[in-house]
Amino acid sequence: MIIEDIRTHLLQVPYADPPRAGLNLPTHIELVVVEVETASGVVGTGHLQPLVGGMRTLEMCIYEMMKPLLIGEDARQVEALWQKMWQATFIQGRMGITVMAMSALDVALWDAVGRAAEKPLWEIWGGTGAPQPIYGSGCYRGLGHDGMIEKAEGFVARGFKAIKMQVAHLFTHDEDVANVRDMRAALGPDIEIMVDVNQGWNAEEAVSVGRRLDEYELSWLEEPVMADDFDGYHKVADALKTPVSGGENHFTHHDFKPFFASGKVPFLQPDIMRGGYTELRVIAEHGHKAGLVIAPHLFPELSCHLLAAIPNASWLEYMGWHDHLWINPVVPEQGMLTPPARPGHGMDFKPELFTDCVYKA
User: Fold this and answer.
1) Please, what is the Cα angle at 335 between 331 and 340, to 5 degrees?
2) What is the pTM of this model?
3) Cα–Cα distance list, 167 to 192, 267, 295 (Å)
C-alpha cells in the first residue's frame, strides 16, 4: 500500500439537468478527478466539483504541494497523511484551495483503503450499511414560483418525503414568503420542506423574513447569513422557531467550533470538498458530543458511507447531478439511499468520460 503515483484528470461533462440557482445557467459539470495508485496496483479515486472555476489551480496545488508529501507513504495511514498535508500547507492554506486539494486526496486514500480490504467504507468505519433518508434538492429559485413547485411535486411523485427550495437573491421578501406559502399549500403537511437562503440575507433580514416563514413548519432555514457571520447565525437561531442549518462553506472542524460551542445550529452541513472523509468524521464526532446532527452538503454517493457509520446522521442531499457519470449510479428509492456494498466508496466514473469530456477552458 505504498503510494507510487498520483494522477489528475480535468473533466467537463454536460449537465443532464442544469441547475437554475441564479441568472447564469451553467451547461457543464467541471470535475477535478484524482487517482492515488499504490505499489500493489490498488487505485483509489476522489474528485472535486469546484462550481465556480479554479480547476487548473486545484490541479497545480495537488501536483506541487501535495504529491511530494505523499509519494512513498503508506496509504493506510490516512489520518496521519491528512495531518502531514495540513501542517505542510498551513501558511498558504488552512482553508480554500489547499484544503480542497487535500480533501480530494483524502477521499482517494480512503477509497484505496477500502478497495485493498475489499470492504465498503461504511463497514470499515463500523456502520451497518442501512438506507439513509435523502431529500430532493434542486427546486431552484431560477425556476420561478411555478417551476419550483413543479420540481418539488416531481420529487414527491418519486417517493421523496422531503424537498428543498430556494429563496433570496432573485426575489423580494414578500415574494419569498409567498413562494414558501404556496409550496406548503401544494405539498400538504406531510412533506418536509427545507429552505435555502444561500447566504442571501443579513441577520436582520433573516430574523424578519424568518419569523414570517415560521408558520409554514419548515424543517430548517439554511445558510441565512454569510458563512463567517457566526454572531448572525446565533441571532437568527435565537429569534426563530424554525431550526437553522449551515456549514457547506465552512472548512474543517475548526470552522464549526462556534456551532459546537453554542449548540444553536442543530443541523450541520459539512461539504466533503472542504475536509474530505477524515474531517467529516471529526465534525460528526464533535457534533454528536454537542447534540447536533449531520446532513452533508451534496455528494450523496460519497457521504452516504459517513451517515451509515455515525450515530448522529440526518439527511443526505440529492441533486441528481452525477447520476449519468457513474458506471453504477446510486439512485434514491422512495426517499432513501442505500450505501453501495462495493469496496471503498464504490463509485467509478464511466471510462469514456476521460476521452470524450476532457476539460478545455
Assistant:
1) 40
2) 0.97
3) 16, 19, 20
Alpha carbon distance 270, 227 (integer Å): 12
In this structure, CATH architecture of domain 123-337? Alpha-Beta Barrel (3.20)
Residue 43 host element (H or E): strand 43-48
CA distance 203 to 206: 5
For residue 322, which of 347, 339, 345 has the smallest C-alpha distance? Answer: 347
CATH 3.20.20.120 domain span(s) along the chain: 123-337
Spatial neighbors of 256 by CB under 8 A, at least 6 apart, are 247, 250, 268, 270, 283, 286, 287
pLDDT in tens, the chain (361 residues): 999 999 999 999 999 999 998 878 899 999 999 999 999 999 999 999 999 899 999 999 999 999 999 999 999 999 999 999 999 999 999 999 999 999 999 999 999 999 999 999 999 999 999 999 999 999 999 999 999 999 999 999 999 999 999 999 999 999 999 999 999 999 999 999 999 999 999 999 999 999 999 999 999 999 999 999 999 999 999 999 999 999 999 999 999 999 999 999 999 999 999 999 999 999 999 999 999 999 999 999 999 999 999 999 999 999 999 999 999 999 999 999 999 999 999 999 999 999 999 999 7
Q: CA torsion sign, 90 to 276 to 49 to 229? A: negative
Segments of the chain assigned to CATH 3.30.390.10? 3-118+350-356
Buried b (16+ CB within 10 A) or exposed e, 204-223: ebbbebbeebeebebbbbbb
Residue at grid coordinates 444553536: 264
**Residues 3-118+350-356, CATH architecture:** 2-Layer Sandwich (3.30)
